[in-house]
Structure formats: C-alpha cells, structure tokens
Amino acid sequence: MWIAAVGLALTNFLVILDTTITNVSVPHIAGGLAISPAQGTWTITSYAVAEAITVPLSGWLAGRFGTLRTAIGALLGFGLFSVLCGMARTIEVLVLMRVLQGLCGGPLMPMTQTMLLRVFPREKMGIANALWAATAVSAPIFGPLAGGLIADNLNWSWIFYINLPMVGLTYLIITSTMRAFETPTRYERIDLIGMALLIAFAGSLQLVLDLGREHDWFASGMIVSFAAVAVIGFLAFVVWELTDGHPAVDLTVLRHRSLAVAMPVMAVSYSALFGMLVLVPLWLQSVQGYTAEAAGQVMAMQGFLGVLFAPIAAAMIQRIDIRFVITLGMLIAILSTLMRAGWTTDAGFWSFAASQLVQGASIPLIFIGVMTIAMIDVPPDEVANAAGLLSFVRTVSGAAGAAVATSAWESSTRVSRSELVGTLHDVGQAGAQVPLPGDARLGLIEGLVDSQAATLASAAVYGWMILAMAVGIGLVWLMPRAIGTAGPAPAH
Asked: Where are the alpha helices (DSSP H) in 217-374?
C-alpha cells in the first residue's frame, strides 16, 4: 500500500513540477533558441492550456480504458514528449511538444488521486489526501530550485530530460503494485463536437494572448481571426454542452451559486498570482542580472509559508465564514504585490524573497477556501464534474495571466523607456564625468535607462494585478455564507 502510494504521489509531483520548473529557465530557453523572453513563456502557457483541456476528459478516459491503463498511457506519453521537448531546437517544435506533454499530464493529476483513494482503506482516507496534497505543495518549492540549478549548470534541455528517471521509477512502482486496482471499463460515447469546440476556443484565446503583441494586436488580420474563433467557439461550446445528451463538460453544475461565483474568483486570483510567478524571475534575470539558480531560490520562498499555512487554512474554514478566509488571503496577496511594486534596482536578495514569503501565506488561504466553498452545495454525484470544470478554469486563467503579464511588461517597458529618454538632458556632458570611452559611457547610460524602464513597467503591471485582486474580493462576497465542508468536497 505504501509503495503504491509513494509511486502515485511521485507521479503527481512530477506533473506539477513541470508547471514551475520552466519559469526560471525562460531566459536560458530564449537564448538557446534565439527568441525573446516573451516568446520563451509560450513553453509555460502552451503546457498549461493543453493540460487544462484534458482534465475534463479524465472521467471519460477512465471509464473507457480503465483508470490504471489511462494513467500508465499518460505517464509513458509524458516521458516521451519530455524527451522530445529537450531535443527541440526551434520554438515551434518546442511548443508543439509541450502541448503534447500537457495533454498527457492533464489526466495524471485526477487519476493519481483517484487511485490513491482506492488503495487506502476508508479509515485512512485522510492520510491518502494528505500525501497527495503534500506533493502538490512541495513541487512549487522544488520546481524553481531545480530549474535554476539545471539551467545554470547544464543545458536547458535537461529540465525536460530530468523527468525520465522519475517516469521510469513511477512506471515500475505503479505497474507492479496497482494491477489489482484497475477499474472496470465500459463503452461511453464521447462528445467529439464539444471537445473540438473546447480546443478551438481555448487554443485560439491563448494564441491571441501569446502572439498579439508582436503582431500589433487587432491591426493584424491573423489576430482578429483567432479572436473571432475564440469568441464564436466559446458561444457555440456553451450552447452545445447545454443541449447535448452526453456533454464533455457538464455546464449544468453552474446552477449552483457557490460554484458559479467561485469560477470568476478563481480565474481572477489565479491569473494574477501565476502572472507574477512568471514575471518575477524574468525581471530578476533580465534586469538584476540574477542567475537562474538565484532567481529560483527567490521563487522557492513562496512555498515555505504555503506549506505552513495549509493546515491553518484548513482549520480556519472549519470555524469561520470561508469568505473571510478567502478575503484575508487576497489582502495578504495584495500586500505582497505592493511590496513588489516598491522594488528598486538597488534592492537585495531578501527584499525580493520577503514578498515571495508573504505571498506564500496567501495561496492556501485563497485556494483551499475557494475550492471548498465552490463545492459546498454541489451534490455528491456532481462533485467530480464541478471539480474538473474548476480545475479547467484555474489552469486556463493561469496561462492567460502569464501571457498578459509578460506582454504588458514588454509594452510598458517600451513606453517607460521613451518617457525616460525624453527627460534626459546634457547626456554627453554628464557622461564625461565617467572614466570610460565615449561609446562605453553612452552604453552605460543606455543600460541604466533600460533597467529603470523595465522596473517601472513591472510596477505598472503589479498595479493592474492589485486591481484584479480587489475585484476578486468583491466577487467573494457574492458567494453564499459557508462554514466547514460538506460531503466529498475536501478530497476533490
């Protein structure tokens, strides 16, 4: 039982690790492929969107092929596409492989939790959920650390090759211990039209966000076309799923007020937090000159208080109105963002790390609270569908937040730079005081202007994120009052 549990927990750890290990490696990937850092973030957003698309399919896959077979197939595919990601030498190939890797990684998270609950007897369900949750909260700590260490000391490809030993180990454990826990299969019709519409609108939306800046947004016919597909695809998806007899995503669960309001709260808060998770290491490396390893150490600070506050958040939602818990978490997140908005290029490591520590305390308060209150009035037979839909919204909004944050940062940097240049006077005379050749003096001044412009742009983006979190606080109070949990919601 415990060997199987370790194998399943490691599988979940591996999938979540890959959502954070690339964050601090983006500058290395961008340099290796001769692309901009903003293009490098496509490796993050493409994986996240692909992963989100397959989450709603998990139940159908388990029913059609069996939980164990689905998990093994997804695990092997994850390993294969990890290797192909490392072998990619163009951004187009890398993004394609990341999409395929994400499609395989998506079903693994719900599958590993489902199998854990089958392995452990009912009286030990709490231990099973705690073990699964431990991997979910520890992976974001190890991801930036491992990514930075690998990127600085090895080729960036090794952030993907490193998956292979873990895939091999977990494959051996699962296949040797889980055969008796395979679930029966049955033929189930799949909603191909619904899935096609889901892929069309989610993929087109991400293309708009990723490619919009470099193609001058809606001045480009291509971007307009993608935006039209996203809007029409979304509307068609909603209509189809509400009228189809066997929908891929059961949207009727949105009749429950708690879930209907939790989804925009999740979208707003997660997009802001994940956007910062991508933007902070980019700024540290491109402006402050941090190595990937040092940036990873800063980012990992977020995980420590996250781990400590997880049981605190779980205890709080049992005793007080969950809306207060979520609001407290968002206020702490706003505080951490205000700390970032005050960063200067003269600040040191602990100034940067402090904001990450503070943000870590907010994450369990927000997300344990939102996930709990979302399910508070959902009937047990609809919890799986509701959890899948909430997971889809979370993942897609995170990818969107990362794309918007990096795009806004680059655009705002250009604007800030032009404004700073317009305020400079007598550069030649001032530069003459610097004991360097003329071109070197001008280069030094240009570097100072660029770094200050990027820092001002970061502060502007953080301001928008604070506004988004404030909107989220307002939405929280549209939820019904709730204390504690109900039914099977905590496991999901």
From this structure: 221-243, 257-286, 292-316, 322-341, 349-374
Nearest partner of 301 among 244, 243, 355, 238, judged by Cα: 355
For residue 372, give Cα distances in angstroms to 49, 146, 326, 491. 24, 31, 10, 10
As a whole number of angstroms, the distance between CA 86 and CA 207 comes to 23
CA 130, 132, 137, 138 torsion-angle sign: positive
Cα separations in angstroms, 3 against 9, 24, 109, 116, 222: 10, 32, 18, 11, 51
Using the 8-state DSSP alphabet, how is residue 477 labeled?
T
Q: Look up residue 422 and give its two tokens.
A: 């317009």
What crossing angle do the helices spanning 192-211 and 221-243 adopt, rounded to 10°?
A: 150
Residues 6+ apart with CB under 8 A from 26: 37, 40, 41, 43, 44, 278, 281, 282
What pLDDT digit, counting tens, does each position of 228-245 carry? 998 998 899 889 888 887
Structure tokens at 302: 């977020």
469 vs 36, 219, 462, 474, CA distance in Å? 29, 30, 10, 9
* Nearest in space to 312 (alpha carbons), one of 258, 273, 274, 366: 366
- What is the rounded (10 degree) CA torsion for 250, 251, 257, 263? 100
Q: Which of 170, 125, 178 is nearest to 9 (CA)?
A: 170
DSSP secondary structure code for residue 481 in this structure: P
Cβ(446)–Cβ(427) below 8 Å: no
pLDDT (tens digit per residue) in 475-484: 998 888 877 6
Tokens of 334: 């706003």
| Integer Cα distance of 211 and 232 in angstroms | 19
CB atoms within 10 A of CB 212: 20
pLDDT in tens, 88-137: 888 889 989 998 998 888 888 777 777 776 777 766 666 666 666 667 66
Per-residue buried b or exposed e for 55-69, using 16+ beta carbons within 10 Å of the residue's own CB: bbbbbbbbbbbbbbe
Q: What would the pLDDT profile of 10-69 be if each residue is shown by its tens digit?
A: 888 888 888 778 877 888 888 888 888 777 878 887 888 888 788 777 777 777 788 888
CA nearest 277: which of 257, 255, 294, 302? Answer: 302
